[in-house]
């Protein structure tokens, strides 16, 4: 089946995005939330002129995108077309003034669109056509004065429309724009300039919540049935709106009507409309005297009980005992907040028959809570009581005896300086007590004596300096104790006695100077969270026992920002015992150094923040994180870290998020990065990464990895190359031509593999002989013997195989040495301790002649072959007549062919053949053999030299006759001298 145009577009967009992603897992202006899903992106505080430049490189898998606090003024067409899976798009707090009609094309999956806090003054009627699945549209805090009647016509799935804080003047086109939205449930038109609700079209029947407060309504001007389906209706702060505007309206379905700060007379409204009195919020209706309240209660009295009664902002100064007697029973909430009440007594104004659950007397002028030790009435149904935001200075004893079953008491945000020892007596069911943000300086041993059910106690932001022994001994069910923001400098040894279930202890922003291990150790069975931020904890020596040794179940420890200058020195094994800890906070502590064993016990740690924790360049010791294999998030910003080495970070195999911003690193170990297999996010902003060859691998890695996000890579400037960026600095100078290099090396290697076996098979021994010759030529012994010329030690060196030793000893030796020839034999005359090659060289060059006794065994001998090579070297290269060949047995030319130099000697010289016994006259033949051999031994070695001298004489004579010198003659005469032929035995 052929693809639809939309499907083809999605495929192309996805493919394009994947190509971009394949080249670099980084985004120019956005950060992907590091959750491995590639769906959530945040582009905050970006100042590109065009929003398309901000989002163009995001992946097509994006479902949630926030682009806020930018400086762009327009959304052009198809700005988000490559993000077809978006379901939430937040574009608030920018400077948008114009949106092209095709700006949201291809966003068919979009459910939420937030355009609040911009400069929009008008919208094209087709701008939202493409987002037909939209559920929530937020256009608040803009400059819209008019709404086109067709603007929302395509948003049939819209449920919430927010247009608050605009400049809307006309209600009619607005109603026309939403009348065909069958799923719209909430419409916010507050803070506009509407003067009437006059209309030509009805509201959608689905609309249940309508806010039109803070407008300029003076009349409603709508049909009787216009609001019949609305349930929550807010007309508050329309100061000109009077009762007449509601006459005849059907308000039968309204469950919450707000009319505060209008001119509506509530009594008339209740008498002349079908609104149910118990569904009206009576705040801000000037019900400040008893007569008005009594009249209202009489109207409410037709119902025996109501769920809530709200009397905020009515300037009520006092409530007499009989004021609310005529009102029906209140089963839920009575709210008297934001009035001028100065005295609440013991709540005598309440009907004892009421089943009231919650009473709020907040934002009034109460200055004291008096004793109610013997109240006239007790309110056993009351569970929640709030006196927040008053001016209460003192709470007397037994102040709550009339409310014995309270579970939630809020006395916070007052000026309570004195809390009587017995002020809370009788509150045995109290679960939550808030005394925070007061002026308490002391709490006593019996202050909380009766609070046996208390689970949460908040004493934050008071003036407490000491927690005395047994202060909380009765609070056996307490789980959360908040003492933060006080002046506590001392915790007595029994301060936490009785806290058998305490899980969260907050002591931040106090004046503690040390951590008492014994004190906290008493909480070892239950404590999960310990907050010690911003105290005065300081260590000057490493030899301090761990104060956490017994807190084996602690999960969260905060030690941030100790004042004035941080902890400075962490003692050895400071965190010993915290085997269950999952989160550790150490930011802003200016620690001079971390020991290698600092975190050894934190085997279950998952989150660690060390931001701004070091002084100068941090020298993190090898193995400092060796046991943190479960760590998933490490924040180490501005620590002066200079090296990213495997010795320090190599064991963090479970790490997913790594922040190294503002450190001193010049490069990263790429091998280590590859080994951190779970890493998905690494932030290196403001690090002075070098744009040199040492970072070529890192640059390539940022372009090719598909696993780790490198945020704001394209904005990282080269510190050492002004005007360059890290992602594209020139790396060509760092590379050879890898293709040529690989081809050359492969070609050479192939040739070697082909030639070496052939050379081994054909030239093994020749190469070996060449090695020895070369070695000898460079040897000191070689040079010394060459200069001796005719100063020889022996007449002949005998080269023979051991198989022919009998012939040498019985025939050769007696005949030659008996004739006064000096012979060199290897077994007799070689120097002890010399290398065998050096001995052979010395023998050849220390003898006038070399006699080779050639036989089949001789040809098979390696050393004999070497001796022939050395002697022939003197014969051919040095023009020395030194070699005599004696064949003991017939040797064919084929057998000698493998010995190139010996064959060459045989071709140029006549050799001696030992006569065998089978010849006709062996005796005469042998005599002739020895005679010829002796004559050869006596011959001179200078035949070659004589021939060379003869050539020089001829050259001189030719020059005299022709005038042609030797140098010129070399152009015409073959320079290679003729081989010298010396015949020792005539054929």
UniProtKB/TrEMBL annotation:
Residues 946-968 have a biased composition (Basic and acidic residues). This is Toll-like receptor 13. GO terms for molecular function: signaling receptor activity. It comes from Triplophysa tibetana. The keyword Transmembrane helix applies. Residues 940-968 are annotated as: Disordered. SMART domains: LRR_BAC, LRR_SD22, LRR_TYP, TIR. InterPro entries: Leu-rich_rpt, Leu-rich_rpt_typical-subtyp, LRR_dom_sf, TIR_dom, Toll_tir_struct_dom_sf. It is a single-pass type I membrane protein.
């Amino acid at each position: 089946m052929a693809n639809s145009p939309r499907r083809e577009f999605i495929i192309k967009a996805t493919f394009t995005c994947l190509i971009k992603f394949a080249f670099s897992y980084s985004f120019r202006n956005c950060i992907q939330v590091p959750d491995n899903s590639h769906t959530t992106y945040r582009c905050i505080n970006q100042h590109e002129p065009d929003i398309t430049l901000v989002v163009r490189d995001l992946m097509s898998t994006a479902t949630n995108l926030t682009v806020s606090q930018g400086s762009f003024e327009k959304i052009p067409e198809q700005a988000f077309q490559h993000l077809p899976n978006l379901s939430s798009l937040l574009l608030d707090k920018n400077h948008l003034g114009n949106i092209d009609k095709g700006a949201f094309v291809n966003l068919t999956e979009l459910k939420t669109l937030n355009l609040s806090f911009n400069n929009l003054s008008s919208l094209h009627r087709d701008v939202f056509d493409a987002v037909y699945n939209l559920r929530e549209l937020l256009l608040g805090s803009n400059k819209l004065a008019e709404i086109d009647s067709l603007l929302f016509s395509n948003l049939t799935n819209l449920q919430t429309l927010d247009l608050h804080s605009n400049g809307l003047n006309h209600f009619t086109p607005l109603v026309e724009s939403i009348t065909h939205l069958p799923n719209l449930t909430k419409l916010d038109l507050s803070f506009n300039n509407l003067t009437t609700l006059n209309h030509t079209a009805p509201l959608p029947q689905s609309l249940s919540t309508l806010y039109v407060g803070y407008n300029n309504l003076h009349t409603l001007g709508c049909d009787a049935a216009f609001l019949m389906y609305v349930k929550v209706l807010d007309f508050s702060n329309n100061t000109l709106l009077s009762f007449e505007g509601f006459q005849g309206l059907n308000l039968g379905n309204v469950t919450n009507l707000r009319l505060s700060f209008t001119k509506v007379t509530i009594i008339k409204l209740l008498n002349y409309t079908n609104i149910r009195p118990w569904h009206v919020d009576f705040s801000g209706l000037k019900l400040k005297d008893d007569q008005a309240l009594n009249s209202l209660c009489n109207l409410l009295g037709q119902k025996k009980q109501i769920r809530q009664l709200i009397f905020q902002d009515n300037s009520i100064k006092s409530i007499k005992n009989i004021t609310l007697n005529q009102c029906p029973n209140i089963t839920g909430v009575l709210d008297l907040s934001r009035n001028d009440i100065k005295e609440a007594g013991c709540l005598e104004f309440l009907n004892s028959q009421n089943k009231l659950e919650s009473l709020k007397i907040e934002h009034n002028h109460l200055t004291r809570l008096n004793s109610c030790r013997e109240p006239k009435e007790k309110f056993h149904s009351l569970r929640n009581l709030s006196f927040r935001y008053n001016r209460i200075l003192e709470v007397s004893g037994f102040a709550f005896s009339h409310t014995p079953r309270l579970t939630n008491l809020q006395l916070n945000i007052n000026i309570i300086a004195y809390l009587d020892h017995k002020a809370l007596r009788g509150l045995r069911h109290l679960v939550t007590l808030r005394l925070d943000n007061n002026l308490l300086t002391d709490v006593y041993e019996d202050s909380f004596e009766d609070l046996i059910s208390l689970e949460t106690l908040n004493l934050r932001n008071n003036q407490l300096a000491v927690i005395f022994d047994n202060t909380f001994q009765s609070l056996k069910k307490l789980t959360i104790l908040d003492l933060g923001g006080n002046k506590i400098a001392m915790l007595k040894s029994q301060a936490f006695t009785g806290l058998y279930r305490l899980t969260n202890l907050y002591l931040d922003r106090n004046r503690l100077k040390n951590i008492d291990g014994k004190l906290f150790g008493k909480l070892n069975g239950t404590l999960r969270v310990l907050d010690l931020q911003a105290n005065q904890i300081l260590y000057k020596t490493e030899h301090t026992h761990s104060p956490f040794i017994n807190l084996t179940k602690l999960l969260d420890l905060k030690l941030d920002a100790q004042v004035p200058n941080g902890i400075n020195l962490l003692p050895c094994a400071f965190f010993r015992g915290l085997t269950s800890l999952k989160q550790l906070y150490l930011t802003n502590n200016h620690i001079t150094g971390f020991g290698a064993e600092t975190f050894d016990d934190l085997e279950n740690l998952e989150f660690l923040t060390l931001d701004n924790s070091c002084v100068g360049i941090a020298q993190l010791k090898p193995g400092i994180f060796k046991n943190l294999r479960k760590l998933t998030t490490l924040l180490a910003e501005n620590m002066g870290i200079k090296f990213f080495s495997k010795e320090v970070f190599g064991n963090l195999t479970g790490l997913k998020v790594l922040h190294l911003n503002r450190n001193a690193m010049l490069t990263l170990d790429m091998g280590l990065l590859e080994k951190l297999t779970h890493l998905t996010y690494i932030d290196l902003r403001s690090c002075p990464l070098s744009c040199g060859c040492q970072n070529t691998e890192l640059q390539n890695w940022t372009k090719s990895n598909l696993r780790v996000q490198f945020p704001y890579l394209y904005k990282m400037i080269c510190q050492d190359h002004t005007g360059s960026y890290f992602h594209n600095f020139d790396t060509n100078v760092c590379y050879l031509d890898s293709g040529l290099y690989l081809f050359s090396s492969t070609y050479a290697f192939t040739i070697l593999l082909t030639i070496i076996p052939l050379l081994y098979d054909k030239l093994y021994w020749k190469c070996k002989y060449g090695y020895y010759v070369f070695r000898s030529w460079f040897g000191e012994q070689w040079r010394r013997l060459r200069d001796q010329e005719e100063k020889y030690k022996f007449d002949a060196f005998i080269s023979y195989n051991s198989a022919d030793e009998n012939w040498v000893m019985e025939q050769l030796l007696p005949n030659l040495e008996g004739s006064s020839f000096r012979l060199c034999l290897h077994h007799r005359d070689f120097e002890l301790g010399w290398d065998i090659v050096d001995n052979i060289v010395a023998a050849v060059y220390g003898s006038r002649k070399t006699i080779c006794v050639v036989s089949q065994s001789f040809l098979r001998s390696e050393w004999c072959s070497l001796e022939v090579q050395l002697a022939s070297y003197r014969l051919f290269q040095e023009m020395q007549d030194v070699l005599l060949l004696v064949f003991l047995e017939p040797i064919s030319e084929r057998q000698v062919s493998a010995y190139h130099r010996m064959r060459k000697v045989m071709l140029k010289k006549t050799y001696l053949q030992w006569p065998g016994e089978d010849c006709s006259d062996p005796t005469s033949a042998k005599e002739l053999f020895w005679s010829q051999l002796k004559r050869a031994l006596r011959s001179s070695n200078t035949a070659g030299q004589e021939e060379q001298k003869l050539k020089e004489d001829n050259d001189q004579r030719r020059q005299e006759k022709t005038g042609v010198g030797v140098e010129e003659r070399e152009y015409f005469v073959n320079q290679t001298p003729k081989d010298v032929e010396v015949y020792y035995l005539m054929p």
